[in-house]
Amino acid sequence: MAIPEKAPGEAPAEERRDSSNRNSFRRSIYSVPVTVTVSIGQKRLSVSEILELQPESIVPLSSRIDDPVDLSIDNKVIAKGELVETADGQIAVKIIEIIERAPEDYA
Fold first, then answer.
1. Boundaries of domain holding 64
2. 35-80 pLDDT, tens per residue?
3. CA 22 to CA 11: how far, in whole Å?
4. Is residue 101 situated within a structural domain?
5. What is the pLDDT of residue 101?
6. What is the edge-to-edge ordering of all strands in the sheet holding 76-85?
7. Domain with 54 in it: what CATH number?
8. Is the Cβ–Cβ distance between 3 and 58 less than 8 Å?
């Protein structure tokens, strides 16, 4: 009988069935909400340029409209994506790349 492969980051089957408090805590982590920030570009402005901003001012960013955007959690880039429009007209991000990091990068 073949042993099914586990997905990266997935707990082994015996841990998933373990009902100990330790495993219960591990499972509860998955429901903790985190804020994902999407960065579409940046522009460095002087204080005087910021004070001159008015409604209708245009601030050009460092990226082009079709460039990939960064998805971050706690200022750490976790993925790259492209901006898309949903069927109901909202803006969304289509993931195009997951950024692989060493475990010590998350410490």
1. 35-106
2. 999 999 999 999 999 999 999 999 999 999 899 999 999 999 999 9
3. 13
4. yes
5. 74
6. 37-39, 69-73, 76-85, 91-98
7. 2.30.330.10
8. no
